[in-house]
Amino acid sequence: MKLFYAPEGRLRLTMEDRSHLDVVPAWAAPRTHPDRYLSLLDSKGKEILMLERLEDAGADNVEVLRQELRRRYLYSQVRRVNAVRMEFGATYWSVETDRGHRDFVTQSLQENAQWIDEEFLLLIDVEGNHYQVKPVSALDPDSLRRLRSVV
Amino acid sequence: MQTASLTPGGASAPEIPLIDVTSDLDEDGLYGVRRLVVTATEVTVSTPTGVPTCRIALSDIAKARHDPLVSGGRMIVTLKNGVIIPVVNYSLAVSEKFSEVARGIEQLSQGEELSIDMHDELKRCPKCDRLLPEKDGPCPVCVNRSKTLWRIFGFLKPYSRATTMLVAGSVCTTALNLIPPYIQKQLVDGFTSKSLETSGLLQWMALWLGLALAGSGLQIFNGRLMTYLATHISKDLRASTYRAIEYLSMKYFDRKPVGAIASRVTQDTDRVWHFLVDGFPFFITNSLMALGVIGFLFSIDAVLAAAILVPIPFILLISVRYWKPISNMFFKVSQRMARLHMQLNESLSGIRVVKAFVSEDREFKRFDERNKAWQQAAMQADQKWYTAFGMMTFAASLGALINWTVGGMFVLQGRLTLGEFIMVNSLLIMVYGPMQWFAQVNNWFSRAMAGAERIFEVMDMTPESNRELERTLDIRGDVTFDAVRFGYDKSNPVLKNMSFDVKAGEMIGFVGRSGAGKSSTINLICRFYEPDGGRILVDGVPLNEINIANYRSQIGIVLQEPFLFNGTIAENIAYGKPDASLEEIMVAARAANAHDFIVSKPDGYDSIVGERGVQLSGGEKQRISIARAILHNPRILILDEATSSVDVETERQIQEAIGRLVEGRTTFAIAHRLSTLRNANRLIVLERGEIVEMGTHEELMQRRGVFCNLVETQRAVTEIIGVGN
């Protein structure tokens, strides 16, 4: 199999004699099995094949896949918590993520701060954007203290 | 990679931007600012420093669309030569806006007039720059307090007499409370100087008794008055909020989860009335009291008064310092409790599955974990609270210590009489008592204001249009769709340019795969939504000129999953005609083939159904729902796949009932089972929001097009299932 952008900006998967345009990579269980079980869907949403590991795609294709995944999954990983303030039921966050600095606000932490497991906290802001804190214990002590003060 | 300079001449003369928006992600998916500008000739995306990352001539564009990604999206443009170009990335924060922009670009590229909703949503509070919890919503920190406050007090208006009496009563209570310390002073000074005689003592005591009686009477009176006001205002607030919500358009209900809407009716109104009946009187009474007492103290001895009041700033400080973390902690406790509740609810309602999979131990473990988590949080919160409370108590007792030290010295020096000293001591308690709560008043107040703001927002929202229109119509039943365009989210049209004519009394079947636009068409006929373009006419009259309540009262709906309200079967059948007699109800039930199973229930028509009532099978619910529609006697009837997942005999009965129901009414039916649509006069076949075929069952079968294909696929599937059995 071969994955490449052709024409530009459109992911194409060629396998033996067949070629699929506008291929969409989709994680089967991104929260519990990150980096495993990647489904490749055709433009109609039908699965072409499933990769158990990214590397199974072959060295040439992995980079293309990573690029496409990064573009498709706009989650961000929280690296540092600069400030958290809870006021009147809304929580105001200022964080550093793998995508850069971000300020956001979450409402009702009861629904929008979800512990996926002991080490994985998912924050969902008022617009529905996802911010992952994982692993929680890897945060620096200050960030951890700020985080613990609200969740 | 995304730089595509396709304008023939390169840079064009500066033009007026028709669309000018900013995204929050750069080409590499990092948070950054990209500005997208559309002029009459081209689309340009550039960095904050003005470096273009993408530039496309409008004349080259064939299509522009929003490509939804996980937690964001990107805009994709298809050029006329087939090349597809990703233009700009954005997070969910602005995706709605960009999907509008995509539509706008498409309109412009096709030479149409630009008609998109580019209303700029407010994300940050213009005053304090805080992010807003809801776009365009109120900032909880700086809502216009005085205006909102004034409006809240508007709810007191019908009770102005009671309110005035309450305020007057509170002032009197304050004044009465100040007198006993004065009596104490008179008595003690009388004792020490031996100038008081028994008769004088008794006179003072009689006065004190009178005051105590009057004070208690006033307290009872105030309490009763307060309760009267509290319950009435609470009731009024909830009623007006609910009423406002009821009349909002379906779009509002699509956007907001039911829980969030319900909390406006219950929690937000609660916050407001708590403030009105607890917070506000508390604040007024205690402020008056504090001011009165402090003034009194200074009039006795300024130095002593100043000394006594020294700990007060400390109390306020402790209160301010601890309030935030403690309230956060209590918030966490309620959060944990809610999680425990959720777990309990889930495992109990799924108890059958729990037992079947022998997972009692696992469920108990999960329950226990959450239970422990609650215990931890509750313990920490309460312990912290007691610590803060202890510190405040200490600061308050300092007041007494200072009084005994400084005041005591003054008594020894003869600067103060013993009576005055006793009076000061009594007054002291009155200042220190409410002081520890004062720091919270602001917070209390702000919460109430935010709640009120949310309530008023709903009340101020435009209700469904045409509720006020006076034009009514006795519907005959002709329905016309004239180039109707519609989408729940405007950038993503579900119905495109749909036109058809239906004569009164005709039965129309909508056919198509799920997502083809069948339900959306029905929603438009019911006027749950407004079309984005085109017109819908009933008997030649545009729908938006008819009073909506009048129109809907002539429409009947039999839904896929019939909704039964808590109540008797008879009440449910008569939902559209509450004054119907039992005879009428029975006639309808017989016509719906529902009578027999109803009377065989122990309570017959009086059987309670709904959440806590008797269990009805799917087929029974459907027939009750059909009876409801028959009794309602609508001119236009909507059938949303009334026969699904029932046995053959039940289906026959339902079909028979429907046959009676549709007679003489314009009927629109959706059914996945194509055979059930045989009775339809005409079928409309939909595909991706467009009509692809229209005609009778026979005509369509002969045409051997989309419909025929669907029928044959379904037949094949049925046969396979048949063999499998």
Question: How would you characterize this protein structure?
Answer:
The complex is a heterodimer of chains A (151) and B (725). Chain A has helices at residues 59-72, 109-112, 141-148; strands at 2-5, 11-15, 18-21, 24-27, 36-41, 47-53, 76-87, 90-97, 100-107, 113-117, 120-124, 130-133. With 151 residues, chain A is α+β, with helices and mostly antiparallel strands. Chain A folds into two domains: 2-72, no CATH class; 76-148. A six-stranded mixed beta sheet of chain A has the order 9-8-7-12-11-10. Chain A has a three-stranded antiparallel beta sheet with strand order 1-2-3. Chain A has a three-stranded antiparallel beta sheet with strand order 4-5-6, with helices on one face. In chain A, strand 10 and strand 11 (120-124) form a beta hairpin. The longest helix of chain A is centred in the middle third of the chain and has 14 residues, at 59-72. Chain A starts with a strand and ends with a helix. The model of chain A has no long low-confidence stretch (mean pLDDT 86). The model of chain B is unreliable at 1-13 (pLDDT under 50). Chain B folds into five domains: 19-109, Roll (PH-domain like); 136-301 and 416-463, ABC transporter transmembrane region fold (Up-down Bundle), CATH 1.20.1560; 312-412; 465-554 and 634-725, P-loop containing nucleotide triphosphate hydrolases (Rossmann fold, 3-Layer(aba) Sandwich); 565-632, no CATH class. Chain B has helices spanning 92-109, 145-154, 160-193, 198-246, 250-255, 258-300, 302-308, 311-349, 351-356, 360-413, 418-460, 518-525, 548-552, 569-573, 582-591, 595-599, 618-632, 648-662, 697-703, 706-724, and strands at 19-25, 31-38, 42-46, 52-57, 61-69, 72-79, 84-91, 479-486, 495-502, 507-511, 533-538, 541-542, 555-558, 567-568, 608-609, 636-640, 666-670, 682-687, 690-695. With 725 residues, chain B is of the alpha+beta class. In chain B, strand 11 (533-538) and strand 12 (541-542) form a beta hairpin. In chain B, helix 10 (360-413) runs antiparallel to helix 11 (418-460) and helix 19 (697-703) crosses helix 20. The chains are: A alpha+beta (151), B alpha+beta (725).
